[in-house]
Amino acid sequence: MEFILSIWGPASKLFKDSPPLLMALFSARLGSRGLSLMHFMPLLENDLLAHTSDNSGFTMDFSNKTTPPPTPLECTSYDDILSALYGLKSFGNKLWFDYLNVLISRLIHFVSDNRSQDPSNSSIRVKRTLQLSNAFLGAALDHLAADSPSWWRDYWGEVHKISSESLSWILALQNIQASQVACLRAAATAHTGSATAPSAHASSDGNRRSQANSYNPIPEHIRRQVPRRPDGTEPCLRFFGGSMCHGGTVDRCAYSKRTHVWDSPLPREVQSCINRLYGGNKRSHYGPQRG
């Protein structure tokens, strides 16, 4: 009884449906194996006060018949996912071993990386981030519940797969981009007859950008090294790699926020990457000189 009370106390101060959540926690039924991360959203201060002010939220029913908590509302931002992860980590810091806390920390870094890459919190990418986070969590916990001599090695193998540069996430991003391109094409087709000349030009520029970005062969760690001016303009990597952007000229890039004139050499890793991708260093680092 003393042990049950010791684990119930921290959980009741963090989560509303603490008994079913505790059962899921200690039977490793999380993520794709059971409860979603969103079940672990910590209570806000006012909700916590209302929940703990009387005995209405108190229960010691830890039987298999305990009603599972309702499905949480769909999250709308990366902050929602991070809030749930920090709620889970707060519980884990009190009662879990370090190797489980490392798993949660990796998930926090994964979600944080996506938040920095998608400041607009696009709904489809937020949804995919939550889905893959649940999948990562469930895959790792599978090995803790397995009766296998290699469970420890397999567990850490799954933990180290949790990354914004993992193959599963790269494939998920490509699917997202493909669906966005399809939506843009459908919208452009529906408004072909009513678009004015300026808006048609903007749509054409947007379609070219979407098509060019539907598959981006440049690794993310290289993309982060690409220089950018204060107004958001960046060098046209295809041009500086020795090729030509689709629809552009030597003096002018086809995209409004890219340029064929840059004031300094590109970082060594960036230049090496685009040389391999776009045909070799056929021109100067600086592109055409300013007149």
From TrEMBL:
Composition bias of kind Basic and acidic residues appears in 220-230
Organism equals Phytophthora sojae (strain P6497)
Region (Disordered) residue ranges read 194-230
Q: Enumerate composition-biased segments (Low complexity).
A: 194-204
Protein known as: Uncharacterized protein
